[in-house]
Amino acid sequence: MELYDLIVLGGGPAGYNAAERAAEEGLKTLLFEGRALGGVCLNEGCIPTKTLLYSAKIYDYAKHGPEYGVSFDGAKIDHKAVVERKGRVVKMLVGGIGATLKKAGVTVVSENAKITGRDGEGFTVAAAGTEYKAKKLLVCTGSTAAVPPIPGLRESVASGFAKTNREILEMTTVPKKLVVIGGGVIGLEMASYFNSIGSKVTVIEMLDHIAGPTDREISSILQKNYMKRGVEFLLQAKVTSVEKDGVCFEKDGKAQKAEADCVLVSIGRRAMTADIGLETIGVKVERGAIVTNERCETNIAGVWAAGDVNGKLMLAHTAYREGEVAVNNMVGKRDEVHYESIPSVIYTNPEVASVGETSESVKEKGLDAKTLSVTLKYSGRYVAENEGGDGIVKLIIDKEHRYLIGVHMIGNYASEIIYGAAMMVEKKMRVDNIKKFVFPHPSVCEVIREGIFQI
Ligand code: NAI
Predict the structure, then answer these.
(1) CB 333: neighbour CB atoms within 10 A?
(2) Ligand 1 geometric centre to CA of 247 (Å)
(3) Residues in contact with ligand 1 (CB, 6 Å cut-off)
(4) Selection from 435, 369, 372, 356 nearest residue 402 by Cα
(5) Crossing angle between the packed helical segments 13-24 and 316-330, to the nearest 10 degrees
(6) Does domain 3-144+270-339 correspond to CATH entry 3.50.50.60?
């Protein structure tokens, strides 16, 4: 049996990126992917949703054209054509990953693999009746949508009435009434799309706010924007069952029902740790996720894990970094993931982007911090491009050292601006040093400079 240096389980962002890096480092690398290269991100997550949302954005711009002196009479959106385009975009990018891996010299086996044990030489893995062996293992098996045992929910998913992120992206019809269970990232992005293309959207969320850990001032502006556009938010609502024509829930002590012809369940994700043979080599799993440290090591020497499977910060860009960190440590280049400076984005319209501490987290942690909110209207470009826009940027500064510990933004281009803020947070840049940076003008990112001068 051929002995590989590294076997990677899973070809999503963590796995494919790590496999490429490992091959570049000279490791003889084998990657298993049972579905499609690119994983959830490329096939049923980040990229498909961004493709849909971009079409919705064009349509929204067309609808709002008259506010800017432009009219697009009879603008229409063809959801089926949008979904078909999404398929072409995904296909092209999946092909690109295959070509990149081939060029890097990674052997790809298109099968699901299972760890079967270890011997003196390394770890053994079986796929489609064949056994493979490697000195090291990297587990990047990702996550799947959580479908909790709410009465009627699993049956509704089986019948197609309720959908997870996977099925909703394949749907070619437009629901009249879409009920979204869970007002987190997936729920809000899909609510945004279907609201734009004409569905009546209701979001049922058990917390008293949407967008999970997002800074509360920002999530409240986001909610107001979508309420204005007709999305209904039922907060502090407990889903009790899913029936054939809607979702039953309790709110303010009253049993109620939201009618639907389609339901999206987006209440979080579960790491994929079952049935991959982790127990055969004793890899520690807690609350369904592989336990890793900041170097992406598991409790077993020679076994690493990266991406959603560790249950930490289920974001594709976190997965990329974790995959790289795992490989660097494998080849003796000590490296670690700095989770506190990883940015996150919600691709609604307006976009939301965040990094670091929030107003709420500084209170919880008892940090001595100053918080400043600045309207994006300080930016000439923002005003030029956003009639009636209510975007803000929030800066959170450590009072004692005067460095940035958090940046939160709502308004378009936030998704592209946040990486600069993430670098400032990662490098613990002091306010006085940031003041010396020159920001391009006119730009929306200038508002960060404006805020820094107001501190
Ligand atoms: P999430 O964790 O972002 O949000 C789930 C929401 O559902 C929470 O607000 C939670 O309070 C609520 N919830 C849980 N149980 C509920 C119940 N029984 N009834 C009503 N509400 C309930 O999870 P989501 O949206 O499914 O996303 C999964 C993962 O995918 C996240 O880790 C997210 O970061 C990632 N993702 C990231 C994207 C991005 O970076 N733009 C886009 C889409 C997904």
Answers:
(1) 11
(2) 18
(3) 45, 181-187, 189, 204-207, 212, 239, 266-269, 314-315, 344-347
(4) 369
(5) 30
(6) yes
Choose one of 186, 233, 349 to mutate for the ligand 1 pocket test, by most ligand atoms within 8 angstroms of C-beta: 186
Mean local confidence (pLDDT), 232-255: 98
- State residue 1's pLDDT score: 87
Q: How far is the CA of 182 from the centre of ligand 1 (A)?
A: 6
Token pair 């496999």 in the structure block, residue: 19
Same CATH topology for 3-144+270-339 and 153-267: the answer is yes
- For 248, the token pair is 């039953």
**CA 107, chain centre distance (Å):** 28
Report the C-alpha gap between 212 and 229 in whole angstroms: 21
Pick the CATH number of 350-452 from 3.30.390.30, 1.10.3430.10, 3.30.460.90, 3.40.50.720: 3.30.390.30
The residue to mutate among 150, 206, 250, 345, having the most atoms of ligand 1 within 8 angstroms of its beta carbon, is: 206
Distance 187 CA to ligand 1 centre (A): 7
Give residue-wise pLDDT tens across range 405-455. Answer: 999 999 999 999 999 999 999 999 999 999 999 999 999 999 999 999 999
- With beta carbons less than 8 A apart as the criterion, state whether 374 and 383 touch: no
Cα 269 to averaged position of ligand 1 atoms, centre (Å): 7
Q: CATH for 153-267, among 3.20.20.100, 3.50.50.60, 3.40.1570.10, 3.40.630.30? A: 3.50.50.60
pLDDT digit string (tens) for 109-148? 999 999 999 998 999 999 999 999 999 999 999 999 999 9
Atom of ligand 1 nearest to the CA of 150: 18
Is residue 441 part of the annotated active site? The answer reads yes
Domain boundaries, the chain: 3-144+270-339, 153-267, 350-452
Ligand 1 atom showing the smallest separation from residue 204 Cα: 20
Tens of pLDDT, residue by residue over 290-299, are 999 999 999 9
Matching residue, tokens 């029936």: 243
Tens-place pLDDT, residues 363-397: 999 999 999 999 999 999 999 999 999 999 999 99
